[in-house]
Amino acid sequence: MTEDRHHLPQRRPNHSLEFEFDGNRYQLTIGFYGDGKIGEVWLNGPRPDSALYHITQDACILLSHLLQRFVSPETIEASLPRRPDGGPASIIGAIILELIELGAAS
To answer: Is position 7 within any domain?
Structure first.
């Protein structure tokens, strides 16, 4: 991983989608570079100002920093734990799977 962070332009394309994880609905917003690479993620969930909300906000900032150093969602996903059924163990893993699915759909 490079220490060089590639900042996103002030105006950039984005895409929002909704998904469910552990019975909660979330809205994920994904920001893109001009060439279509994912550069940032933001998540809104059902319980603002809860501990989970703040953890997911921190996670999105950290994920965005990895993405801005061109670490692929697939590389991040390969490092995360899974449930016994193969699904993501946390909301963070679920965010990464959404990014991978979006990339596959492009």
So the answer is: no
- For residue 77, tell me if it sits in a domain: yes
Q: What are phi and psi of 28, to 5 degrees?
A: -110, 130
pLDDT at 103: 81
pTM, 2 dp: 0.88
Low-confidence ranges of the chain (pLDDT < 70): 1-3, 104-106
Reported as a single tens digit per residue, the pLDDT across 78-94 is 999 999 999 999 999 99
Report the number of distinct structural domains present in the chain. 1
For the chain, the distance separating the N- and C-terminal CA atoms, rounded to the nearest angstrom, is 24
The phi, psi pair for 76, rounded to 5°, reads -65, -45
Tokens of 52: 């989970």
Query: Is residue 80 a part of any domain in this protein?
Result: yes
Given a contact cutoff of 8 angstroms between Cβ atoms, the answer to whether 42 and 53 are in contact is no
Q: What CA–CA distance (Å, rounded) separates 48 from 61?
A: 17
Looking at every residue in the chain, the average pLDDT score rounds to 91
73 lies in some domain: yes
